[in-house]
Amino acid sequence: MDDTPETFESVIAGPRGSGVVPSDGPPLLSLRGITKSFGAVQALRHVDLDIPVGQVTALVGDNGAGKSTLIKTISGIWAPTSGTISWKGKEVHVHTPRDASDLGIATVYQDLALCDNLDIVQNMYLGRESTKGGILDEIEMEIATRKTLADLAVTTVKSVRQLVGSLSGGQRQSVAVARAVMRESELVILDEPTAALGVSQTAQVLELIKTLKSHGLGVIVISHNLSDVFEVADRLAVMYLGTLVNNGPIENYDTASAVELITTGSSSRVPGPGAMSN
Ligand SMILES: Nc1ncnc2c1ncn2[C@@H]1O[C@H](COP(=O)(O)OP(=O)(O)O)[C@@H](O)[C@H]1O
Ligand SMILES: [Mg+2]
């Protein structure tokens, strides 16, 4: 195990964490012809999608459209039935969550998977505790946790020794994101990060997404809330019954056309499905 706790800043400044692919280079992540079947259910049908660096892509669609299945494929939970995944222009095989995290893909699932009976530092380092001479380096871990939260502009947490069970929903989401990005992450995937949150907590999480983007990371965010989507997203990707029916810069859409795409799979008011049409 590494002796030095990683902070968000070391991630950004680190050897692999410079993170910024020139915008004229290949996308951070490219999916081509991704299909996923569960028995007779075809959850994903030939999905082509590019995720650029330094931008927020909102993935939207009705329940059952295939959003979670798509991110689970990117995160190594499901192997696609067919199709290819490329990372910075090179084809990769993402068979396990470990493969995804080794590439620099950090996923925050809806259930957050934090331990309520442990404090923030303990949650941040769960399973990868930092040691010095064989004993836990509590001070180092505490300093690094504070710094990571500060880098992410998370200011409402009173103490990093607070039990996670005592945090608000927005704070929990922030800790989950901080935990995910503490490793060298270049793509952060958030599944419904604001679903359970009130207005001010939602605002906190949206700020956090903007901070990730300003650090040059790529972000994929699944959301049902179109006002959140229009506030943070640079691009929209719409799924309908397993098919990616439309994808483009957020300027191509308004609430009405996004709703139309989500509920019917098409809209005469937006340019056709494109790969990276900006
Ligand atoms: N593990 C699974 N086994 C069988 N079918 C599944 C499984 N996971 C998802 N599905 C099916 O795949 C489709 C897409 O689901 P999902 O990706 O969860 O949609 P979304 O996240 O957009 O609501 C649905 O028809 C769902 O029932
Ligand atoms: Mg889902």
Largest sheet: 6 strands, mixed
pLDDT < 50 stretches: 8-22
* Strand content bin: 15-25%
Write out the CATH superfamily name.
Answer: P-loop containing nucleotide triphosphate hydrolases
Number of helices: 9
Number of domains: 1
> Roughly how many Å apart are the termini?
43 Å
Based on CA inertia axes, which overall geometry fits?
A: globular
Q: Rg, please?
A: 19 Å
What's the CATH topology label?
Answer: Rossmann fold
CATH class, named Alpha Beta
Query: Percent range for helical residues?
Result: 25-40%
The small molecules bound here are: adenosine-5'-diphosphate, magnesium ion
CATH architecture: 3-Layer(aba) Sandwich
Strand line-up in the sheet with most strands: 6-9-10-3-11-12
Number of distinct beta strands: 12
Structural class: alpha/beta
* Rounded average pLDDT: 85
Return the string of H and E elements. HEEEHEEHEHEEHHEHEHEEH
Task: Annotate the secondary structure layout.
Layout: H1 8-13, E1 29-38, E2 41-51, E3 56-61, H2 67-74, E4 82-87, E5 90-92, H3 97-103, E6 105-108, H4 120-124, E7 131-132, E8 135-136, H5 138-151, H6 169-182, E9 187-191, H7 199-214, E10 218-222, H8 226-232, E11 235-240, E12 243-249, H9 255-264
Parallel strand pairs: 3-10, 3-11, 6-9, 9-10
Antiparallel strand pairs: 1-2, 1-4, 4-5, 7-8, 11-12
Helix pairs in contact: 6-7
The structure holds adenosine-5'-diphosphate and magnesium ion.
Describe this structure in words.
The chain has 278 residues and is of the alpha/beta class. It has a single domain (8-264), classed as 3-Layer(aba) Sandwich (Rossmann fold), CATH 3.40.50. 31% of the residues lie in helices and 24% in strands. The protein is built from nine helices and twelve strands. It has helices at residues 8-13, 67-74, 97-103, 120-124, 138-151, 169-182, 199-214, 226-232, 255-264; strands at 29-38, 41-51, 56-61, 82-87, 90-92, 105-108, 131-132, 135-136, 187-191, 218-222, 235-240, 243-249. The chain has a six-stranded mixed beta sheet with strand order 6-9-10-3-11-12, sandwiched between helices. The protein has a four-stranded antiparallel beta sheet with strand order 2-1-4-5, covered by helices on one side. Strand 7 (131-132) and strand 8 form a beta hairpin. Helix 6 (169-182) runs parallel beside helix 7. The radius of gyration is 19 Å and the shape is globular. The structure holds adenosine-5'-diphosphate and magnesium ion. Adenosine-5'-diphosphate is lined by residues 38, 41, 43, 61, 63-69.
